[in-house]
Amino acid sequence: MNELTTTWECPSNIAIVKYWGKRGFQLPANPSLSFTLSQCTTTTTVKAFEHPGRRKPDALVYFEGEYHEAFSQRVKTYFQELAATHRWLKDYDFEIETTNNFPHGAGIASSASAFGALALCLTTMEQKLGPSSFSDEAAFFRRASYLARIGSGSASRSVFGGWVIWGKTPTLPQSDDKFAVKLSDENIHPVFKDLHDTILLISRDTKKVSSTAGHNLMNHHPYASRRFARATQNVLSLVDTLRFGDWNNFAQLCEAEALDLHAMMMTSNPPYLLIKPESLLWIDKIREARMKENLPVTFTLDAGPNLHLIYPEAESEKVKQWLDYQTGNNMDTNLIFDRMGSGPVKKL
To answer: Rounded distance, CA 63 to CA 158, Å?
Structure first.
């Protein structure tokens, strides 16, 4: 009986231009642009046991060492969706062990790192079964991004390091709706090649409205078409900003995108609110520090109340001193420090 085993460590990412709204089968209603983190990662080991003749693949998922029924069901559904075009999956049963090195509810996209790691494991197994499937390394990671997208849209971006775009974008011929692509480092100004992302924990509570439900509410949103057009334009603007190193423009675009995302939630039908009063207090503090103290720090938000403070490496000590003062020397419990990373790592 043939047995395959592989392990990948995959980081999460933080989107500056947000993906919010779907079309078709797990395709984005607008392009998004993110940078990949380095410290907040998921490590996943996949063992595949050959079992020919099955009509659909089976999977057992162990999260942090314990069997997890909900994750197992989600992965089974994912595998069944893939098996229509990746028929080799039907011939195997899977045992998956996965761990995160960051806490649940921390405002970090765990589905991005989780499905990124899982997709990389599956792509590695596919490569072992048929080495000719991939002409080069670029083809390998395109396939991994494609597979990751089907599990979680933002996961398509996590299989690459640096700045990554997902979604067809005017003037960027390499961009695609079905997989993400990495922006060339040659087109990134040095100030944007080593950004820090410090996550300010406002709440660890489970979101009252899931991201899946939020995406679905965009289907009949009164401002959807305007939002999608604005996001596309913001991607184009951000690409230029990254090339020329305009920090002030970056900060304004970063914050506008974060607030746009939450405005879509507040104007959905039914409307809902994920941001907290303390989130707004910190937004005021961050803006005041940048505008009045010339502190080069900006913020973004994912679909939740926790803030991501973004700032360049050259100013990191200054920003950390400001944070230390603002948190009352309590940074260890309120903050998670991360920064831009180079992408996933194969462990086995």
So the answer is: 20
Instruction: Indicate if the alpha-carbon torsion angle 168, 169, 174, 180 is positive or negative.
Output: negative
For residue 173, cis peptide bond before it (omega within 30 degrees of 0): no
In 3D space, the residue among 330, 326, 302 whose CA is nearest the CA of residue 40 turns out to be: 302
pLDDT tens, position by position, 303-322: 999 999 999 999 999 999 99
Sheet order of strands, 335-339 included: 298-301, 307-312, 195-200, 335-339
CA-to-CA separations, 118 to 7, 202, 251, 272, in angstroms, rounded: 9, 29, 33, 32
Is residue 40 pLDDT above 70, yes or no?
yes
Cα 27 versus chain centre, distance: 15
Paired strand residues for 92: 50
**Closest by Cα among 24, 150, 14, 176 to 80:** 150
DSSP 56: S
Give the pLDDT mean for 271-281. Answer: 95
Cα–Cα separations (whole angstroms), residue 87 to 37, 90, 91:
33, 6, 8
What count of Cα atoms within 13 Å lies in the side-chain half-sphere of residue 143? Answer: 19
3-17 and 32-50 strand pairing: antiparallel
pLDDT at 331: 62
Mean pLDDT of 240-263: 97
Q: Which CATH number does 3-189 carry?
A: 3.30.230.10
Domain positions in the chain are 3-189, 190-339
As assigned by CATH, the class of the 190-339 domain is alpha beta
In contact, 116 and 346? CB cutoff 8 Å: no
Our CA dihedral for 99, 207, 341, 82, rounded to 10 degrees, sits at 60
Spatial distance between the Cα atoms of 75 and 68, rounded to a whole number of angstroms: 11
Place of tokens 């390998």: 140
Contact 187, 172 (CB under 8 A): no
CA distance 113 to 122: 14
**Predicted pLDDT at 225:** 97
Prediction pTM value:
0.95
Contact assessment for residue 104 and residue 326, using Cβ atoms and an 8 Å cutoff: no
Query: What span, in angstroms and rounded, lies between the C-alpha atoms of 222 and 215?
Result: 14
